[in-house]
Structures are given as C-alpha cells and as structure tokens.
Design goal:
Number of helices: 19
CATH architecture of the largest domain: 3-Layer(aba) Sandwich
Number of domains: 3
CATH class of the largest domain: Alpha Beta
Helix content: 25-40%
Distance between the termini: 10 Å
Shape: globular
Mean pLDDT: 95
Structural class: alpha/beta
Strand content: 15-25%
Largest sheet: 12 strands, mixed
CATH topology of the largest domain: Rossmann fold
Length: 563
C-alpha cells in the first residue's frame, strides 16, 4: 500500500486509512438524520439517494458555515479535509451537523489532484467510489449535455428549420476527463449521410452549463425551466436559439431525474454527508447543489460546506451567485491556510518547505490578508484555520499566531488530518460562537449594476486589480447582451486558481495589474454570464505524469493510488 513521506516520517496513505475503517451501513447513517427507509434509495450498502419528500417535514433551518482557503499552491491547503474534519468535530461534540460537499471530477482525479474526498483521518467514505463513478451523476450530466449536441446536429441535418448559423453554435460537447485534444474538433466529416460538417469542441463536464443548471435549480420544475432557457447558438439574423426552441427540455430533464437527488454518504467517523454536483470554481461557480445545501439545512442544525479553490473564486461565487439564488444567509466562514503554503507564497521552493522559515511565512501572509479582506467585504464573521502539517515548527506557529493577534483575527490550529474530529474541537468551538452571532452579509454588487461594473467590482475588491481590460470581442458581446436584456445577471469569472490575478505565475498578493477579459459567454439557464480571463481553458489537459499512472487494482482487486 502506498504511503506518504513527510520529512523523514512515513504516513499511511488516504486510501490505506480508508480501507482500515469499517463503514456503517448507510441505513444507520440515515437514522442519524431521522430518515426512514421511505426517504431514500439504496445504491449498495454504503450510498443512498435522498428523496425530495424529506422537504415535507419541519425544517431545522440549519446555519450554513462556509469553508474556503487562501490561493492554492502545490503544497496543498487542505480545504476539503478541514471541512470534513470540522463536521466530524461538531458531530463528536454531539451537535446536529451535516457536511455538504461537491463530487470530485474524474479529470483532476486522473490528472494532477488524485483523490478529492478529504485526507488523513478527515475523509468521506467510500472514498474510492466517490472519486471514481460514484452514483453516476456526472455521467448523467455528460449524457444530458451531449444529447443537446446530438439534437442540434440532427436538427441541422434534417433541414435546419431554426436557421442555425453554423459559425455561431455556442453549445459544446463535454467529457469528464482532461483531454486537450478535444478543445477544438470538427464534426460531420464522413460525408452527406454523416451529418453537416462544422467546427465544435468539448468542455470538461463539470464546466458544462448543465452542471451549473443542475447545481442552481431549486426543484424539478425549476430544473426544467432553466434547461429550456439554455442558449445553444444563434440564427443567421443573430437571434438566440434555446433548448426550448429545439423542444427537448422534457427529455433532458428526464435524463437528470435520478441524478438530481442528493447522495448520502458518511465521514470516517460515521457522520452524515451529502455529496451532490461538482462544478469547478476556476471555470464555473464551484459550489455543490442548492438542493443538497437546502436539504442539509432542512435536516440539521449546522451545515458545513465548501466552495472550490481560494476565496477569490469559490467563496466569491458562493456569496455572489449561489446564496442570492437560493436565498441563503451564511452564518460564518472558515478560511484555511497552511504554514507550508504561506511559505510558498513567501518565495520558498517546494523542496525546501520542511525547513523552518518564519520570514518567508510572514511574507506569505500577504495572500492570507487579501482573502481576509474579501470575506470582510461580504460582512461575514470568520476564523482562520491553520491546517497543521508535521513539518510546522513551534516558532512558525507562534509567529503566525502573533501576526493574527496583532491584526485582531480569530485563528485556531486544526489537526484533523492526523486526529480526525478530535483534532478540530478547538476550531469547532470558535465556529459555533461565530455562527450563532448575527451578521450583515451582503453580496458584493447589485444585479442592476452594468456588466462592466460588476466585473470591475470583483476584480478590484476581490483580486486586488487596478482595473479591467476588455478585448474587442468582449466589448461587442457586452453590447449584444445589453440589447438582449442579459445585463442584470450575476457574473461568474473564469480565472486561474493559482494567482489572485489572471496570470498563474504571480503568487502571493500581486499588485499593479489589470484583469484581462477575453470573452463573455452567456449561461442563461444557469442564470449568469461567464467571463473568460487570461489563458484559462474550459477543457483542461493532462500533465506529463498524470496521477492515473500510479492507480490500479492490487492482487485482492482493491484499488490503489487514489491518494
């Protein structure tokens, strides 16, 4: 079994820890939420789909606690690990709590990231299944997306009654893998009997508008309404064509019927977890589904959830897009950092992170400070969670605590990776105090603001940019969207996760830069406009040595290599 080396110490891999843990049958986990067997459908012994009938019972009106992080580095921040560990700690304290998470995408699992179900003793189970095909939700989303493409091409082949402009079909196919070769393709190349030749391309499934619609819809009726209004292209007169025009909204909704029910699993310590939906936060809105979050609020007093990457991406979109759409008022924010990551932002190379370097760590707090300012801009109470690592030294920890005290910031060490819920008790106590205070949460911008102003507010207030530069294409798109009445929608900015700027090489807290908007894509079904910045791609590529190279089945047909 693969182990992880930290300094000179070998630690068990996440998968080894998971395999040594005896899971509860999901029926027993469901009972902790007072669910009856009529409230869910079993997917084997350890997974279940929860039915919408649970909304018929009285609601707990649970408080929502958002876990976010500083700008990611290759050293890792442990946001998901902290989220799960915090839920474990609250559960250990006998609080009525549920974690609500996104589903991992196969692209990053097979690419760089490996598993995405937490780490150490703060994981969700069964981690190997969650990281692979799980209950098939993302496959259903992929099929629904590609069904729309099939119907578009069939409509054109059968006479093109809607007068599609073949050079202005905006809907792309998708696949839940990193595959750069699919970014630009030609379809219909076989001849007259094999469809009409045109340019096309693929997004990764978690960047599909179907995924965004799936995660922002409030119920089945809303899901159908959002699917119907998806814009798939334009006719030769420049007018938008929608799924409703193709008359396939009912069929696409039907393909998502089972997937739309949230999935119930458990933590290593047997606490309940809902996992549902998985949009990326760098190229999509980065939050689990509204129905899962609302279900968590309905069933528990505290809902611990996360949003992808740093607070500049997932948290901003959670607070500017998801919460207003769902009418959710968050109660507290946990901002995760590691001393290792702070040292990398301070200029230390990854191979030197085990060496004590207080000066570099304090330099890296500039990045932490910017994310704190972002949370403050939304008027939310927060606590800094330092996800402990075995190489952290007493001097580094003490220096970081002094920095926080000097700025009057709540800070707490979290050792959930090593100790599970027990390692997060101190953090959980601080979170409970914050979550039970009143706050004045407010989105960053007004929907009535112009498209340009909304983008500028996020760029300047959240990223620290001096301003925004719009390409000629983006300018023409803004003019068109204003005429179509799409200017009152929220903004979802697609940007590198590796920097506060749109340049992944600018670490820590960049200054003296502009955000470069190269195009704007309408996601009318989702209900937002996607701004593509810098060189961000909506279909990632694989690295030279993908994580998949170390994965497989052992002699006992047990998986290995999923971190």
């Amino acid at each position: 079994m693969e182990k992880e080396k930290v300094g000179e110490t070998m630690y068990k891999s996440d998968l080894e820890i998971a395999n040594e843990t005896k899971m509860l049958e999901i029926k027993k986990v469901a009972k902790k939420l007072n669910l009856t067997e009529d409230d869910y459908e079993l997917y084997g012994k350890y997974k279940a789909k929860v039915d919408f009938s649970v909304f018929n019972r009285p609601s707990k009106n649970g408080k929502v606690i958002l876990v976010t992080a500083i700008t990611p580095t290759s050293a890792g921040e442990g946001k998901t690990t902290t989220c799960i560990g915090l839920a474990e700690a609250l559960y250990k304290m006998k609080e009525n709590v549920i974690a609500v998470l996104r589903e991992p995408s196969l692209g990053p699992v097979m690419g760089i990231k490996g598993g995405a179900a937490g780490g150490g003793y703060a994981q969700v189970m069964p981690m190997d299944e969650i990281n692979l095909h799980f209950t098939g939700d993302i496959h259903a989303i992929t099929t629904a997306n590609n069904a729309i493409s099939a119907f578009i091409d069939n409509h054109i082949y059968q006479g093109n009654e809607l007068d599609f402009d073949l050079n202005n079909i905006t809907w792309k196919r998708c696949l839940d893998l990193n595959d750069r070769a699919l970014r630009f393709v030609k379809v219909g190349q076989g001849g007259p009997k094999d469809g009409v030749s045109r340019d096309d391309g693929f997004n990764i499934s978690v960047a599909s508008e179907i995924m965004a619609v799936f995660c922002l819809a409030s119920d089945y009726k809303d899901l159908r309404t959002r699917i119907d209004r998806i814009v798939v292209g334009y006719n030769t007169k420049g007018n938008p064509i929608t799924v409703s025009d193709l008359k396939i909204g009912g069929a696409i909704t039907l393909l998502l019927k089972d997937a739309f029910k949230p999935n119930l699993v458990q933590t290593l310590e047997g606490g309940p977890v809902l996992i549902h939906g998985g949009p990326f936060a760098n190229i999509a809105h980065g939050c689990n589904s509204i129905v899962a979050t609302k279900m968590g609020m309905h069933l528990a007093d505290y809902v611990v959830t996360e949003a992808g990457f740093g607070a500049d991406l997932g948290a901003e979109k959670f607070l500017d897009i998801k919460c207003p759409a769902a009418n959710i008022k968050p109660s507290a924010v946990v901002l995760v950092a590691t001393i290792r990551a702070l040292k990398m932002h301070g200029g230390v190379l990854k191979e030197d992170l085990a060496k004590e370097n207080v000066k570099a760590m304090l330099k890296g707090t500039e990045n932490l400070q910017k994310h704190i300012e972002t949370i403050q801009a939304f008027n939310l109470p927060f606590v800094i969670a330092i996800n402990q690592f075995p190489t952290d030294t007493p001097k580094e920890v003490a220096a970081l605590k002094r920095w926080a005290k000097r700025h009057n910031y709540d800070i707490e060490l979290s050792d959930v990776w090593k100790k599970g819920g027990k390692g997060g008790i101190a953090l959980a106590k601080k979170v409970l105090v914050l979550a039970n205070q009143e706050n004045n949460y407010k989105p960053l911008y007004n929907l009535s603001d112009s498209i340009e102003k909304k983008i500028e507010k996020v760029a300047t207030a959240v990223y620290g940019a001096d301003g925004v530069e719009f390409s000629d294409l983006a300018k023409s798109q803004i003019e068109k969207f204003n005429k179509l009445g799409w200017n009152k929608l929220p903004i979802c900015i697609a940007k590198t996760q590796m920097s506060l700027s749109d340049n992944p090489k600018l670490i820590n807290r960049p200054t003296n830069f502009n955000l470069h908007v190269r195009e704007i894509r309408p996601s009318i079904g989702a209900g937002f406009l996607v701004c593509i910045t810098g060189t961000i791609m909506t279909m990632p590529g694989l690295p030279k040595e993908p994580a998949a190279l170390k994965m497989g089945l052992d002699e006992n047909n047990k998986p290995y290599g999923i971190f």
